[in-house]
Protein backbone atom coordinates (compact mmCIF):
# COMPACT_ATOMS: atom_id res chain seq x y z
CA UNK A 1 0.00 0.00 0.00
CA UNK A 2 1.27 3.49 -0.85
CA UNK A 3 2.45 5.89 1.83
CA UNK A 4 2.42 9.66 2.16
CA UNK A 5 5.26 11.83 3.47
CA UNK A 6 4.33 15.11 5.12
CA UNK A 7 7.14 17.66 5.31
CA UNK A 8 6.77 20.26 8.10
CA UNK A 9 8.47 23.60 7.48
CA UNK A 10 6.80 26.88 8.51
CA UNK A 11 3.63 25.11 9.68
CA UNK A 12 4.48 23.36 12.92
CA UNK A 13 0.96 22.58 14.07
CA UNK A 14 -1.43 19.69 13.86
CA UNK A 15 -4.65 21.62 13.39
CA UNK A 16 -5.96 23.96 10.69
CA UNK A 17 -3.10 23.00 8.38
CA UNK A 18 -3.98 22.71 4.67
CA UNK A 19 -1.18 20.40 3.51
CA UNK A 20 -1.45 18.21 6.57
CA UNK A 21 -5.21 17.98 6.17
CA UNK A 22 -4.69 16.73 2.62
CA UNK A 23 -1.93 14.28 3.59
CA UNK A 24 -4.08 12.74 6.31
CA UNK A 25 -7.23 12.55 4.20
CA UNK A 26 -6.20 9.64 2.01
CA UNK A 27 -6.48 6.89 4.61
CA UNK A 28 -2.87 5.93 3.88
CA UNK A 29 0.09 5.62 6.21
CA UNK A 30 1.61 9.08 6.70
CA UNK A 31 5.24 9.61 7.65
CA UNK A 32 6.10 13.00 9.16
CA UNK A 33 9.37 14.80 8.58
CA UNK A 34 11.24 17.97 9.49
CA UNK A 35 14.68 18.76 8.06
CA UNK A 36 17.32 20.97 9.65
CA UNK A 37 19.06 22.50 6.67
CA UNK A 38 22.79 23.28 7.19
CA UNK A 39 22.58 26.04 4.59
CA UNK A 40 20.25 27.91 6.98
CA UNK A 41 21.93 26.81 10.21
CA UNK A 42 25.61 27.20 9.31
CA UNK A 43 25.79 31.02 9.41
CA UNK A 44 24.00 31.24 12.77
CA UNK A 45 25.74 31.62 16.15
CA UNK A 46 25.84 28.34 18.06
CA UNK A 47 23.46 29.61 20.73
CA UNK A 48 20.97 31.12 18.29
CA UNK A 49 17.73 31.69 20.16
CA UNK A 50 15.49 30.90 17.17
CA UNK A 51 17.10 27.47 16.74
CA UNK A 52 16.59 26.74 20.45
CA UNK A 53 12.96 27.76 20.17
CA UNK A 54 12.48 25.65 17.06
CA UNK A 55 14.09 22.63 18.75
CA UNK A 56 11.66 22.92 21.67
CA UNK A 57 8.69 23.28 19.36
CA UNK A 58 9.73 20.22 17.39
CA UNK A 59 10.04 18.20 20.60
CA UNK A 60 6.54 19.33 21.46
CA UNK A 61 5.22 18.50 17.99
CA UNK A 62 6.86 15.06 18.24
CA UNK A 63 5.05 14.40 21.52
CA UNK A 64 1.74 15.54 20.06
CA UNK A 65 2.18 13.16 17.13
CA UNK A 66 3.12 10.35 19.48
CA UNK A 67 -0.16 10.85 21.33
CA UNK A 68 -1.83 10.18 17.99
CA UNK A 69 0.16 7.01 17.41
CA UNK A 70 2.43 8.75 14.91
CA UNK A 71 6.12 9.61 14.69
CA UNK A 72 7.98 12.78 13.74
CA UNK A 73 11.34 12.17 12.12
CA UNK A 74 13.73 15.09 12.39
CA UNK A 75 16.62 14.97 9.95
CA UNK A 76 19.74 17.04 9.53
CA UNK A 77 21.31 17.58 6.11
CA UNK A 78 20.88 19.25 2.71
CA UNK A 79 17.19 18.66 1.85
CA UNK A 80 17.91 17.04 -1.54
CA UNK A 81 20.26 14.54 0.07
CA UNK A 82 17.87 13.88 2.91
CA UNK A 83 14.95 13.29 0.55
CA UNK A 84 17.04 10.93 -1.58
CA UNK A 85 17.73 8.91 1.56
CA UNK A 86 14.14 9.01 2.77
CA UNK A 87 12.75 7.91 -0.58
CA UNK A 88 15.16 5.01 -0.77
CA UNK A 89 14.46 3.96 2.83
CA UNK A 90 10.71 4.10 2.35
CA UNK A 91 10.02 2.96 -1.21
CA UNK A 92 6.27 2.90 -0.56
CA UNK A 93 6.13 6.69 -0.34
CA UNK A 94 4.12 7.84 -3.35
CA UNK A 95 3.33 11.41 -2.30
CA UNK A 96 5.41 14.13 -0.68
CA UNK A 97 3.14 16.82 0.73
CA UNK A 98 3.99 20.24 2.19
CA UNK A 99 2.81 23.86 2.29
CA UNK A 100 4.15 26.66 0.07
CA UNK A 101 7.09 28.70 1.27
CA UNK A 102 7.56 31.91 -0.72
CA UNK A 103 11.12 32.95 0.19
CA UNK A 104 13.64 32.89 -2.66
CA UNK A 105 15.82 30.08 -1.30
CA UNK A 106 12.82 28.01 -0.24
CA UNK A 107 11.38 28.20 -3.75
CA UNK A 108 14.65 27.04 -5.25
CA UNK A 109 14.86 24.19 -2.72
CA UNK A 110 11.29 23.07 -3.35
CA UNK A 111 11.80 23.03 -7.10
CA UNK A 112 14.80 20.73 -6.60
CA UNK A 113 12.75 18.38 -4.38
CA UNK A 114 9.86 18.43 -6.85
CA UNK A 115 12.29 17.36 -9.61
CA UNK A 116 13.83 14.71 -7.40
CA UNK A 117 10.38 13.30 -6.61
CA UNK A 118 9.48 13.27 -10.28
CA UNK A 119 12.61 11.25 -11.10
CA UNK A 120 11.59 8.74 -8.44
CA UNK A 121 8.00 8.50 -9.65
CA UNK A 122 6.72 10.28 -6.53
CA UNK A 123 4.17 13.13 -6.68
CA UNK A 124 5.10 16.37 -4.91
CA UNK A 125 2.15 18.43 -3.65
CA UNK A 126 2.41 21.86 -2.09
CA UNK A 127 -0.47 23.96 -0.73
CA UNK A 128 -1.27 27.53 0.21
CA UNK A 129 -1.38 27.65 3.99
CA UNK A 130 0.75 30.49 5.32
CA UNK A 131 -1.41 33.28 3.93
CA UNK A 132 -5.00 34.00 2.99
CA UNK A 133 -4.06 35.34 -0.46
CA UNK A 134 -0.77 34.58 -2.15
CA UNK A 135 1.42 35.39 -5.15
CA UNK A 136 -0.88 36.82 -7.83
CA UNK A 137 -4.27 36.33 -6.24
CA UNK A 138 -4.60 40.03 -5.43
CA UNK A 139 -3.64 42.08 -8.47
CA UNK A 140 -4.75 45.31 -10.14
CA UNK A 141 -7.39 45.41 -12.86
CA UNK A 142 -4.55 45.14 -15.39
CA UNK A 143 -3.31 41.99 -13.67
CA UNK A 144 -0.32 43.84 -12.29
CA UNK A 145 1.26 43.55 -8.87
CA UNK A 146 0.06 46.19 -6.40
CA UNK A 147 2.83 48.51 -5.29
CA UNK A 148 0.70 50.58 -2.95
CA UNK A 149 -0.76 49.11 0.20
CA UNK A 150 -4.17 50.83 0.47
CA UNK A 151 -5.65 49.59 -2.84
CA UNK A 152 -4.08 46.18 -2.21
CA UNK A 153 -5.83 46.02 1.14
CA UNK A 154 -9.11 47.14 -0.39
CA UNK A 155 -8.95 44.39 -3.00
CA UNK A 156 -7.81 41.85 -0.40
CA UNK A 157 -10.85 42.63 1.77
CA UNK A 158 -13.20 42.55 -1.20
CA UNK A 159 -12.02 39.02 -2.09
CA UNK A 160 -12.41 37.68 1.43
CA UNK A 161 -15.20 35.09 1.83
CA UNK A 162 -15.93 32.55 4.57
CA UNK A 163 -14.19 30.00 2.32
CA UNK A 164 -10.90 31.98 2.49
CA UNK A 165 -10.64 31.50 6.24
CA UNK A 166 -12.24 28.08 6.54
CA UNK A 167 -10.49 25.80 8.98
CA UNK A 168 -8.45 23.06 7.30
CA UNK A 169 -9.40 20.21 9.64
CA UNK A 170 -7.06 17.29 10.06
CA UNK A 171 -8.63 13.87 10.53
CA UNK A 172 -6.46 11.65 12.65
CA UNK A 173 -8.89 8.80 13.25
CA UNK A 174 -8.46 7.23 9.79
CA UNK A 175 -4.67 7.23 9.99
CA UNK A 176 -3.04 3.82 10.45
CA UNK A 177 -0.61 3.93 13.39
CA UNK A 178 3.02 3.37 12.46
CA UNK A 179 4.41 -0.08 13.14
CA UNK A 180 8.01 -1.24 13.42
CA UNK A 181 9.22 2.34 13.33
CA UNK A 182 11.83 1.86 16.03
CA UNK A 183 13.88 -0.60 14.01
CA UNK A 184 14.07 1.68 10.98
CA UNK A 185 14.92 4.67 13.12
CA UNK A 186 17.82 2.83 14.68
CA UNK A 187 19.16 1.71 11.30
CA UNK A 188 19.09 5.23 9.90
CA UNK A 189 20.69 6.76 12.95
CA UNK A 190 23.59 4.37 12.71
CA UNK A 191 24.11 5.11 9.05
CA UNK A 192 23.76 8.79 9.74
CA UNK A 193 26.54 8.96 12.28
CA UNK A 194 29.02 8.54 9.42
CA UNK A 195 27.55 11.10 7.08
CA UNK A 196 26.45 14.76 7.05
CA UNK A 197 22.88 13.50 6.87
CA UNK A 198 21.37 12.05 9.97
CA UNK A 199 18.21 11.46 11.88
CA UNK A 200 18.10 13.45 15.12
CA UNK A 201 16.97 11.70 18.25
CA UNK A 202 15.72 15.05 19.62
CA UNK A 203 17.44 14.32 22.91
CA UNK A 204 19.79 17.27 22.94
CA UNK A 205 20.20 20.30 20.72
CA UNK A 206 23.98 19.65 20.67
CA UNK A 207 23.21 16.87 18.20
CA UNK A 208 22.91 19.55 15.54
CA UNK A 209 25.88 21.53 16.81
CA UNK A 210 23.93 24.12 18.85
CA UNK A 211 23.53 24.99 22.51
CA UNK A 212 20.41 25.98 24.39
CA UNK A 213 19.91 29.74 24.34
CA UNK A 214 19.15 31.66 27.51
CA UNK A 215 16.72 33.80 25.53
CA UNK A 216 13.18 32.54 25.75
CA UNK A 217 10.37 34.39 24.00
CA UNK A 218 7.25 35.62 25.72
CA UNK A 219 4.09 33.62 25.21
CA UNK A 220 1.85 35.33 22.71
CA UNK A 221 -1.14 37.42 23.75
CA UNK A 222 -3.62 36.21 21.16
CA UNK A 223 -6.42 37.24 23.48
CA UNK A 224 -9.76 38.84 22.70
CA UNK A 225 -8.97 41.79 24.95
CA UNK A 226 -5.71 42.58 23.17
CA UNK A 227 -7.39 42.44 19.77
CA UNK A 228 -10.34 44.55 20.92
CA UNK A 229 -8.17 47.40 22.21
CA UNK A 230 -5.39 47.00 19.67
CA UNK A 231 -6.17 50.22 17.79
CA UNK A 232 -5.92 52.23 21.01
CA UNK A 233 -2.93 50.54 22.64
CA UNK A 234 -0.72 49.32 19.83
CA UNK A 235 1.56 52.36 19.64
CA UNK A 236 2.64 52.48 23.27
CA UNK A 237 5.71 50.33 23.85
CA UNK A 238 5.33 50.36 27.64
CA UNK A 239 1.94 48.58 27.34
CA UNK A 240 2.57 44.96 28.24
CA UNK A 241 -0.33 43.69 26.15
CA UNK A 242 -0.65 46.41 23.54
CA UNK A 243 0.08 43.97 20.69
CA UNK A 244 -0.24 40.21 20.34
CA UNK A 245 3.42 39.09 20.04
CA UNK A 246 2.22 36.60 17.46
CA UNK A 247 5.02 37.37 14.98
CA UNK A 248 7.21 34.45 16.03
CA UNK A 249 4.26 32.06 16.19
CA UNK A 250 3.10 33.05 12.73
CA UNK A 251 6.66 32.78 11.45
CA UNK A 252 6.89 29.10 12.39
CA UNK A 253 3.23 28.41 11.74
CA UNK A 254 2.42 27.53 15.32
CA UNK A 255 -0.77 29.50 14.86
CA UNK A 256 -2.88 29.43 11.70
CA UNK A 257 -3.37 32.71 9.88
CA UNK A 258 -6.92 31.64 9.04
CA UNK A 259 -7.65 31.38 12.76
CA UNK A 260 -6.18 34.89 13.23
CA UNK A 261 -8.36 36.39 10.52
CA UNK A 262 -11.47 34.60 11.76
CA UNK A 263 -10.83 36.01 15.21
CA UNK A 264 -10.15 39.53 13.88
CA UNK A 265 -13.43 39.47 11.95
CA UNK A 266 -15.39 38.12 14.88
CA UNK A 267 -14.10 40.87 17.16
CA UNK A 268 -14.19 43.54 14.45
CA UNK A 269 -10.48 44.13 15.16
CA UNK A 270 -9.91 45.83 11.82
CA UNK A 271 -6.71 47.67 12.79
CA UNK A 272 -5.17 44.36 13.69
CA UNK A 273 -6.48 42.71 10.54
CA UNK A 274 -4.77 45.46 8.60
CA UNK A 275 -1.41 44.37 10.05
CA UNK A 276 -2.02 40.81 8.91
CA UNK A 277 -2.68 42.23 5.44
CA UNK A 278 0.65 44.13 5.57
CA UNK A 279 2.27 40.78 6.30
CA UNK A 280 0.78 39.31 3.12
CA UNK A 281 1.54 42.45 1.11
CA UNK A 282 5.25 42.10 1.89
CA UNK A 283 5.20 38.34 1.25
CA UNK A 284 3.57 38.92 -2.12
CA UNK A 285 6.16 41.58 -2.99
CA UNK A 286 9.10 39.38 -2.05
CA UNK A 287 7.67 36.62 -4.19
CA UNK A 288 7.51 38.90 -7.24
CA UNK A 289 10.70 40.86 -6.54
CA UNK A 290 13.08 38.40 -4.86
CA UNK A 291 16.13 40.54 -5.58
CA UNK A 292 14.81 43.27 -3.25
CA UNK A 293 16.44 41.28 -0.45
CA UNK A 294 19.65 43.00 -1.49
CA UNK A 295 18.68 45.92 -3.62
CA UNK A 296 16.34 48.85 -3.15
CA UNK A 297 12.94 48.45 -4.72
CA UNK A 298 13.25 51.99 -6.11
CA UNK A 299 16.14 51.98 -8.54
CA UNK A 300 16.87 55.70 -8.04
CA UNK A 301 18.17 54.65 -4.65
CA UNK A 302 21.11 52.77 -6.10
CA UNK A 303 23.03 56.03 -6.01
CA UNK A 304 21.98 57.12 -2.52
CA UNK A 305 24.96 58.75 -0.76
CA UNK A 306 25.10 56.54 2.32
CA UNK A 307 27.65 57.21 5.03
CA UNK A 308 29.39 54.67 7.22
CA UNK A 309 31.03 55.40 10.54
CA UNK A 310 32.13 52.35 12.51
CA UNK A 311 31.72 54.05 15.90
CA UNK A 312 28.22 55.32 15.07
CA UNK A 313 27.19 51.91 13.81
CA UNK A 314 28.53 50.22 16.96
CA UNK A 315 26.74 52.69 19.21
CA UNK A 316 23.47 52.18 17.34
CA UNK A 317 23.79 48.37 17.71
CA UNK A 318 24.62 48.58 21.41
CA UNK A 319 21.88 51.10 22.25
CA UNK A 320 24.35 53.84 23.18
CA UNK A 321 23.39 56.64 20.81
CA UNK A 322 22.39 59.02 23.59
CA UNK A 323 18.83 59.06 22.19
CA UNK A 324 16.71 57.39 24.91
CA UNK A 325 13.96 55.83 22.79
CA UNK A 326 16.49 54.49 20.25
CA UNK A 327 18.72 53.07 22.96
CA UNK A 328 15.76 51.51 24.80
CA UNK A 329 14.63 49.77 21.60
CA UNK A 330 18.08 48.43 20.73
CA UNK A 331 18.66 47.17 24.26
CA UNK A 332 15.25 45.50 24.31
CA UNK A 333 16.14 43.82 21.02
CA UNK A 334 19.59 42.71 22.17
CA UNK A 335 18.36 41.36 25.48
CA UNK A 336 15.06 39.75 24.49
CA UNK A 337 14.98 39.27 20.72
CA UNK A 338 11.89 41.47 20.49
CA UNK A 339 11.23 45.14 19.80
CA UNK A 340 7.94 46.98 19.70
CA UNK A 341 6.78 48.01 16.22
CA UNK A 342 6.68 51.76 16.91
CA UNK A 343 10.22 51.56 18.26
CA UNK A 344 11.38 49.46 15.28
CA UNK A 345 10.28 52.33 13.07
CA UNK A 346 12.10 54.89 15.22
CA UNK A 347 15.42 53.02 15.41
CA UNK A 348 15.31 52.19 11.70
CA UNK A 349 14.59 55.80 10.82
CA UNK A 350 17.41 56.93 13.10
CA UNK A 351 19.93 54.62 11.43
CA UNK A 352 18.93 55.37 7.86
CA UNK A 353 17.99 59.05 8.09
CA UNK A 354 19.79 60.57 11.08
CA UNK A 355 22.98 58.57 10.59
CA UNK A 356 22.49 57.95 6.83
CA UNK A 357 23.65 54.35 7.11
CA UNK A 358 22.59 51.77 4.54
CA UNK A 359 19.23 50.10 5.40
CA UNK A 360 20.81 46.72 4.52
CA UNK A 361 23.04 46.94 7.60
CA UNK A 362 20.05 47.45 9.85
CA UNK A 363 18.06 44.75 8.10
CA UNK A 364 20.90 42.21 8.61
CA UNK A 365 21.25 43.22 12.26
CA UNK A 366 17.53 42.71 12.90
CA UNK A 367 17.64 39.38 11.06
CA UNK A 368 20.23 38.11 13.55
CA UNK A 369 18.40 39.33 16.62
CA UNK A 370 14.64 39.18 16.12
CA UNK A 371 12.75 36.14 17.33
CA UNK A 372 10.06 36.98 14.79
CA UNK A 373 12.52 37.61 11.96
CA UNK A 374 10.77 37.13 8.67
CA UNK A 375 12.60 37.98 5.47
CA UNK A 376 9.67 39.59 3.66
CA UNK A 377 8.50 41.69 6.61
CA UNK A 378 12.00 42.71 7.60
CA UNK A 379 13.15 43.72 4.12
CA UNK A 380 9.80 45.34 3.32
CA UNK A 381 9.68 47.39 6.51
CA UNK A 382 13.33 48.44 6.39
CA UNK A 383 12.92 49.64 2.84
CA UNK A 384 9.66 51.32 3.77
CA UNK A 385 11.29 53.28 6.59
CA UNK A 386 14.41 54.11 4.55
CA UNK A 387 12.27 55.53 1.77
CA UNK A 388 13.46 53.15 -0.96
CA UNK A 389 10.70 50.55 -0.76
CA UNK A 390 7.28 50.07 -2.24
CA UNK A 391 4.78 52.59 -0.93
CA UNK A 392 7.60 53.93 1.25
CA UNK A 393 7.37 56.61 3.90
CA UNK A 394 7.89 59.99 2.18
CA UNK A 395 11.53 61.07 2.27
CA UNK A 396 10.79 64.24 4.18
CA UNK A 397 9.17 62.29 7.00
CA UNK A 398 12.12 62.12 9.35
CA UNK A 399 11.04 61.08 12.80
CA UNK A 400 12.09 63.39 15.57
CA UNK A 401 12.93 60.77 18.24
CA UNK A 402 12.25 63.04 21.18
CA UNK A 403 8.80 63.99 19.86
CA UNK A 404 8.11 60.30 19.21
CA UNK A 405 9.08 59.53 22.76
CA UNK A 406 6.88 62.29 24.20
CA UNK A 407 3.90 60.98 22.23
CA UNK A 408 4.31 57.27 22.71
CA UNK A 409 6.19 56.97 26.00
CA UNK A 410 5.09 60.15 27.79
CA UNK A 411 6.00 58.91 31.28
CA UNK A 412 9.35 57.47 30.12
CA UNK A 413 8.20 54.11 31.43
CA UNK A 414 9.56 52.16 28.47
CA UNK A 415 12.77 54.16 28.29
CA UNK A 416 13.52 53.79 32.00
CA UNK A 417 12.88 50.05 31.80
CA UNK A 418 15.69 49.57 29.28
CA UNK A 419 17.94 52.56 29.95
CA UNK A 420 17.90 52.95 33.74
CA UNK A 421 20.74 55.51 33.66
CA UNK A 422 18.85 57.76 31.25
CA UNK A 423 18.59 60.71 33.64
CA UNK A 424 22.04 60.35 35.15
CA UNK A 425 25.26 62.15 34.20
CA UNK A 426 26.69 58.91 32.80
CA UNK A 427 24.19 58.92 29.93
CA UNK A 428 25.92 60.26 26.78
CA UNK A 429 24.72 63.23 24.71
CA UNK A 430 23.03 62.36 21.38
CA UNK A 431 25.33 61.16 18.60
CA UNK A 432 24.02 63.84 16.29
CA UNK A 433 21.92 66.98 16.61
CA UNK A 434 18.39 66.42 15.26
CA UNK A 435 18.10 69.61 13.13
CA UNK A 436 21.54 69.07 11.61
CA UNK A 437 20.77 65.39 10.86
CA UNK A 438 17.40 66.25 9.37
CA UNK A 439 18.92 68.83 7.06
CA UNK A 440 21.72 66.47 6.04
CA UNK A 441 19.21 63.73 5.22
CA UNK A 442 16.99 66.08 3.21
CA UNK A 443 19.91 67.22 1.08
CA UNK A 444 20.98 63.60 0.51
CA UNK A 445 17.47 62.78 -0.72
CA UNK A 446 17.42 65.87 -2.91
CA UNK A 447 20.54 64.63 -4.68
CA UNK A 448 18.69 61.53 -5.88
CA UNK A 449 17.78 61.37 -9.59
CA UNK A 450 14.69 63.27 -10.69
CA UNK A 451 11.54 61.30 -10.16
CA UNK A 452 12.24 60.42 -6.56
CA UNK A 453 11.89 63.91 -5.14
CA UNK A 454 8.85 65.49 -6.74
C1 LIG B 1 12.29 48.02 10.63
C2 LIG B 1 11.24 46.98 10.87
C3 LIG B 1 11.54 45.62 10.77
C4 LIG B 1 10.54 44.65 10.97
N1 LIG B 1 10.88 43.32 10.88
C5 LIG B 1 9.93 42.38 11.03
C6 LIG B 1 10.25 41.00 10.93
O1 LIG B 1 11.40 40.59 10.68
N2 LIG B 1 9.25 40.09 11.12
C7 LIG B 1 7.96 40.48 11.37
O2 LIG B 1 7.07 39.62 11.53
N3 LIG B 1 7.63 41.78 11.44
C8 LIG B 1 8.56 42.73 11.29
N4 LIG B 1 8.22 44.05 11.40
C9 LIG B 1 6.79 44.41 11.54
C10 LIG B 1 6.29 44.59 12.99
O3 LIG B 1 7.14 45.42 13.71
C11 LIG B 1 6.15 43.26 13.73
O4 LIG B 1 5.42 42.34 12.97
C12 LIG B 1 5.43 43.46 15.06
O5 LIG B 1 6.06 44.43 15.83
C13 LIG B 1 5.40 42.15 15.81
O6 LIG B 1 4.74 42.33 17.02
P1 LIG B 1 3.41 41.55 17.32
O7 LIG B 1 3.63 40.11 16.99
O8 LIG B 1 2.96 41.90 18.68
O9 LIG B 1 2.44 42.11 16.20
P2 LIG B 1 0.95 42.68 16.19
O10 LIG B 1 1.06 44.15 16.19
O11 LIG B 1 0.06 42.05 17.16
O12 LIG B 1 0.51 42.27 14.69
C14 LIG B 1 0.09 40.94 14.37
C15 LIG B 1 0.93 40.35 13.29
O13 LIG B 1 0.78 41.09 12.08
C16 LIG B 1 2.01 41.08 11.36
N5 LIG B 1 2.50 42.46 11.24
C17 LIG B 1 2.28 43.48 12.09
N6 LIG B 1 2.86 44.61 11.61
C18 LIG B 1 3.43 44.27 10.45
C19 LIG B 1 4.18 45.00 9.48
N7 LIG B 1 4.44 46.30 9.60
N8 LIG B 1 4.67 44.33 8.41
C20 LIG B 1 4.43 43.02 8.24
N9 LIG B 1 3.71 42.29 9.11
C21 LIG B 1 3.23 42.90 10.20
C22 LIG B 1 2.98 40.25 12.17
O14 LIG B 1 2.92 38.93 11.71
C23 LIG B 1 2.41 40.39 13.56
O15 LIG B 1 2.80 39.37 14.43
C24 LIG B 1 9.22 45.05 11.24
C25 LIG B 1 8.91 46.41 11.34
C26 LIG B 1 9.91 47.36 11.17
C27 LIG B 1 9.54 48.81 11.26
Structure overview:
By secondary structure, the protein is of the alpha/beta class. The protein contains 20 helices and 6 strands. It has 3 domains: about 1-130, HUPs (Rossmann fold, 3-Layer(aba) Sandwich), CATH 3.40.50; about 130-170 and about 220-290, Alpha Horseshoe (Serine Threonine Protein Phosphatase 5, Tetratricopeptide repeat), CATH 1.25.40.80; about 295-445, DNA Cyclobutane Dipyrimidine Photolyase, subunit A, domain 3 (Orthogonal Bundle). Strands 5-4-1-2-3-6 form a 6-stranded mixed β-sheet, with helices on both faces. Helix 4 (about 80-90) runs parallel beside helix 5 (about 105-120), helix 6 (about 150-160) crosses helix 12 and helix 14 (about 325-335) crosses helix 15 (about 340-355). The protein is globular and about 75 Å long.
Keyword list:
Serine Threonine Protein Phosphatase 5, Tetratricopeptide repeat; DNA Cyclobutane Dipyrimidine Photolyase, subunit A, domain 3; single chain; globular; binds flavin-adenine dinucleotide; 454 residues; six-stranded mixed sheet; alpha/beta
